[in-house]
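testing teh design pipeline on a random one, pls ignore if ur not involved
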């Protein structure tokens, strides 16, 4: 078995989408939903099974940041970068997050992966963040730090 996802799991997803190369984005979404990331050798396998070049598959993977090619940390922290949150300080919050985590977007530090997101549907409580699929509103730097600290304490 390779790190991450077994070959059979990828083949199963490809066949669920009828092996259609034009459904590559949906196939990648299914892989990320079920397994969290897209390893290098899965990209090679997809190119082979969908009869595409590796460059085609890489092109799509690189275009969408959600299709990460490295295993994510145990926790995913997303900071909203859309307009309402920007108006309420999400840029400063983002700068604080980079500094306090020691990670830029799409990077992982101490098992926490930092990602941008574009509207969490929580604009009334901007700036908003999402931690492991739970939304938090009106997050300032100190609340951010205590939420992340809570993550680390919970393991
Ligand atoms: S703009 Fe941030 S939650 Fe909508």
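output:
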């Amino acid at each position: 078995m390779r790190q991450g996802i077994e070959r059979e799991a990828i083949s199963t997803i490809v066949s669920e989408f009828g092996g259609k190369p034009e459904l590559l984005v949906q196939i990648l979404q299914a892989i990320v939903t079920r397994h969290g990331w897209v390893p290098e050798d899965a990209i090679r396998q997809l190119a082979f099974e969908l009869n595409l070049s590796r460059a085609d598959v890489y092109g799509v993977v690189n275009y969408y940041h959600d299709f990460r090619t490295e295993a994510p940390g145990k926790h995913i922290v997303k900071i909203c970068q859309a307009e309402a949150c920007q108006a309420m300080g999400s840029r400063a919050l983002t700068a604080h997050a980079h500094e306090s985590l020691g990670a830029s977007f799409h990077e992982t530090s101490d098992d926490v992966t930092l990602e941008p997101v574009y509207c969490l549907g929580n604009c009334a409580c901007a700036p908003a963040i999402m931690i492991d699929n739970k939304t938090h509103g009106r997050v300032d730097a100190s609340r951010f730090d205590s939420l992340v600290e809570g993550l680390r304490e919970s393991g």
